[in-house]
Structure formats: structure tokens, C-alpha cells
Amino acid sequence: MNAAEFRAAFSLAAVYMSRMLGLFMVMPVLAVAAVELDGFSPVWLGLAIGGYGLTQAVLQIPVGMLSDRFGRKPVIYVGLTVFAIGSVVAALAENMTGLVIGRVLQGMGAIAGSVMALAADTTRAEQRTKVMAIIGISIGMSFYVAVLIGPLLAGQWGLSGLFWVTAGLAIVSILLVIFVVPTPTAQHANPETLPQQHHLRFVLNHQPLLKLNVSVALLHMLITTLFILIPPQLIEAGFALGEHWQIYLPVLLLSIVFLGIIMRAAAKVKTGVSIQFCIFLMAIAIVGLAWLPLTVSSLLTLLVAFFAGFNYLEARMPALVSIFAPAGARGTAMGVYASCQFFGAFLGGLWSGLITSWHGTEAVYAVIITVTILWMGLFFRFNTHPSIKRVTLRIENAATSADQVRQTLTQIPGIVEINPALEQHLVYLRVDHRFDHQRAQDALAKNNN
């Protein structure tokens, strides 16, 4: 990467990470800290924890499309400003209604797609995978950092202080976009990065993608529910809110170690089996959290098991979406996937609050155990080709037709799918291990001549 690409990658990763920190830091805190607010109830608590997910889910795809029309940076400025306003509203809230309104406003800053598109606009095609990987790592890190520092900061400054920190992070992010993130010389409507309306119907009806979309909704429904149930249990176990990191830190470190073990084992079995195993691992952990006597050692063991399964699915499923997404439609597939992810967080907060208010926490545990068992059934006979990759080739001759491109590339071994995008002078491919990149590019060049 050159200096501009390096700057774009790390500054946009910082923007993404600061925003996600703001969304996630309160998740392990609210179930304990929000008890002091007027109007507290399990339902309002669930909405406060998962409320951001509803507006994120609804706006994720439209905001990304708006950035194609109005520009990346203006949309990002607006999104971060709305996010900052929501954080201030939540910081000033004296009752649950104000807190929920603040969280919903936070979710309206749905700039994930716009950030990814800006990253694509400011980097060369051959460096784009590295840049996206850096941003992707920052997304994963933000969750773990948030889980650790959220309780610690709340213990020092209270719930209001946590939201003021979040507002400050949003302002820092705006300054990063203004002064550090490079401004692209040209903007491209890249269907591999942002959703395209004409791809939506196909992606929504694609069976493997549908299973993955349902799965990520269930996964984030579970994690949201867990952060409603676990913090009070930690309080009962003798840990003050500011000490919860003492449990979360070893849990996250050990779960990462076990993630490596699971990934090595998963390489030797079918994809569906590895997914089913991780769902089963989470189900066993939930059973233990519901009905075993909870000591420090049992909490650690059960939470490590849950997060080991969670970590694997959180890392593996986006990669599967990328494999299954039609050539030239990855942006749409990932946009739908992200919307389902946030909608799952909203549902987790809503339904767990409702069931807790009606029947208590034991009923919540019983429902999520049932859900995980049913979820495993989605992945019987589920498999994918392990070596499918995505490749983009340039078409130099504007007069070349889509049929000519397909006819030329059909002769190249290893090409699974061809999708010419003549208006962009590109062709999007899905390929396997037999594919020869140089041979395909040479064939297109020869056809152009």
C-alpha cells in the first residue's frame, strides 16, 4: 500500500471502531446501570440495549445508496452527527424513554456501507482486500474492547459518562474524516461494496444466503439477550459493575484461544458440521448459565464456551456470504446480511424484555435454548466449495458486448460465474483454484484488439 492507502485504511478503521465502541460499550452495562432511571422495566431495558438495531437495520441499505448519489463524506458527516446527537440525548436522559430515544438516534447514523465505499474509492483495486481486512479487524476488535472498557468506565463515570465518551468519539471521528481520510478524486458505484437495488430480490431469495441472514439475526439476538441476563448474575456473584471486566477479560482471551482450535478442526469437516457444532456449544453454555450453580469458575467456563462458538460464527459467516454472493452483487449481499444482524439485536432486546416481564428470566433461557436447537437444523446438508474466490477484471474496449465477454471467459478453466459490468468497464467473476488471472486478463485484452 502507498502512503495515501495506508492513511485511508487506518483512519477509516479508527472511524468505524469508534462508532462501534459507542454502540457496544453500553451493552454489558445497561442491565445494571439503567435500574436507577425512572420508568425502568425489562421491556424498556430490552429496547435500550437493542433499540439501535432497528434503525440500523432499516437505514443500512438506503444510506449506503444515498452515498452513491450525494457523496461518501457528506453522508458520513451527517451519520456521525446524528450518532453524536443520539449519544448526547442518552447522556442527558433521566428516564428510560429518553435513553431509548438516544439509542434509536445512535442507530440512525448507519454509515457502515458509506465507510466501506469510501475505502474502495481511495484505494487501488489490487490493494482493496488489504484495506477491507484492516477495517474488518477493527470491527471485531471494537466489540471486545467495548465489552472490557464499558463496565470499567461506567463504574468510574456512570452511565451518563459512558454516553458522553461516545459523543466525544463521534466528534473525533468527524475530525478524522475531514482532516485525515483522503478525499477520492472520483467516486464509483461499486456493486461489490454497496447494495444495488436491482440485486435485492435475487439475494433475498438465494437459499444459502437466506440461511446465513437468518443465522446472523439469531446470533445477535442471542448476544443481546445474554447481555441482558449476565450482568445481573455477575452482581449476584459479588462483582460490582466496575469489576465485570475481571470476568470478561479472561473469557475473551480464552475464547480466542479456543477459536483457533475450532478453526483448525473446522478445516477438516464440512462447513455445516462446524457451524452446527458452534451452535451446539453455545446451547450447552446457555443451559449451564440457566440452571447450574454459578460460581466464578463455572461462569468463566460457560462464557468461554459461548464466546468460542460466537467468535467462530461471527468470523466465518461473513466469509460464507462473500462466497455465495453472486458475482458483482457482494455489496447487496453484505448489506442485507448487516441489516439482518442489526435487526437480530433489536429483536433480542425486545423479546427478552417482554418475556422477562411476563414469565421471568428462566423463560427467556428456555426460549433461547429452543431457538438454538432449531437453528442447528438449518445447516443439515449445508456445504460450500472451499476455494471459491472473487476476482474483478478490467475491460479496456468500451465497444465490447456482454456476450463477447462471457464467450471469451467461458473458455478459461476455473471460472464459476461471470457478470460483466460494461458501464464500469469491469467484469466480476467467481472462480475456483484452477483459475489463472493472467490468462483471463490476456484473453480479454486479445478480444479487445
UniProtKB/TrEMBL annotation:
Keywords (A to Z) from UniProt: Cell membrane, Membrane, Transmembrane, Transmembrane helix, Transport
DNA damage among keywords: no
Localization (cell): Cell membrane
Keyword Secreted: no
Pfam families found in the cross-reference section: MFS_1
Domain Major facilitator superfamily (MFS) profile: 1-389
Domain of life: Bacteria
PROSITE patterns: MFS, SUGAR_TRANSPORT_1
TM region(s), chain numbering: 43-63, 75-93, 99-119, 131-155, 161-181, 214-235, 247-266, 273-292, 298-315, 336-357, 363-380
Main localization, broad class: membrane
Topology within the bilayer: Multi-pass membrane protein
Protein name: MFS transporter
The organism of origin for this protein: Alteromonas arenosi
Top-level taxonomy: Bacteria, Pseudomonadati, Pseudomonadota, Gammaproteobacteria, Alteromonadales
